[in-house]
Amino acid sequence: MSAPDPIEQALLVVIDPVARRVDGESVRIARDVLRGGAATKICLPDGPEEVERALARRGRRRPVVIGDDRALLHVVNVLQRRRELGDIPVSAVPVGPLPAVSLAQTLGVPLGPVAAARAVLDGTERRLDVLVDDGGGVVLGGLWVPGGYGPGGETDVPAGPAGPAGTAGPNGSAEAGEAGAEAVETMDAGSGPGCGAAEGMGGRGGEGHQPWWSPAARTARSALTLLTGPGPAAEGRVPVPGCTRLRIEADGVLVTDLDRPVTRVSLAAADGGLAELTVHTHDADRPQRSRARRITISGPAFRYRADNALTGPVRRRTWTAHAEGWRLVVPRG
């Protein structure tokens, strides 16, 4: 794998508004490091429409997302809709507490703002498999059905920063969030909402490297473990009572039908353009595992959690694995 071409060192830096409220200091640090190493255009969107317009007008700039997993997923889904996801490398600077940035961590992106920004400038591209559903949605890490696992056993609670957006900082205090917002307000005297041109070229920022995730952990099964929890007994997670009746097919072959209740279904992109499917049934001691390119789940309305975001209810959904379907910039080595 080679580093991005020099012409691609021009960056479109999309700073998520939640990140500006939650941890403005980290946002400012990351922005300064990026400005010090590449020509940058800073985008401070007020909503998803402005992100889409910025990506449509990015020219040859590489997109960089400063924010949590949801901000990264939004940019990835926009690029997928524009049929550009496999054509350009995407970079991320995670900002926010765990589990709001657990997907980025799983993918190998450093969690420290300096280390992550340096990876944007000096890193290398990884071509990663991806799952795309029949509605056009992208799954980068993994998903499971039903979507009712929470960190304390609660059901159907979307993962994200503690409390409503903008009310708590990384340490859980409202004061930290407000201080972060004030720090980011001072970024550019002439910058307001929207995407203004803020170009810069110069030296690199300071230290503060944080080790990034071990390559050995970046497998389909490990991704699901990190994003959803390895099981009922781990980290205080408790399964939702009862079972779900689903029909599951893998490349047209029936895996389980409505007459065999399932307690949990996991799905993640594996190597070679295949998806790894794990089905826990009520009447079996061990899960049933298989790999296929296309997985279809149908039955009574169900919810699922993909990359820690809750979706549904739906009655039928098909996911297709795409080999090397997207490109992510990560640290070298």
From TrEMBL:
Listed GO MF terms: kinase activity
Transmembrane segments: none
Phylogenetic classification of the source organism: Bacteria, Bacillati, Actinomycetota, Actinomycetes, Kitasatosporales
Source taxon at top rank: Bacteria
Signal peptide (from-to): none
Name recorded for this polypeptide: Diacylglycerol kinase
Keywords: Kinase, Transferase
Ranges where the record places region Disordered: 151-179
Low complexity biased stretches: 154-179
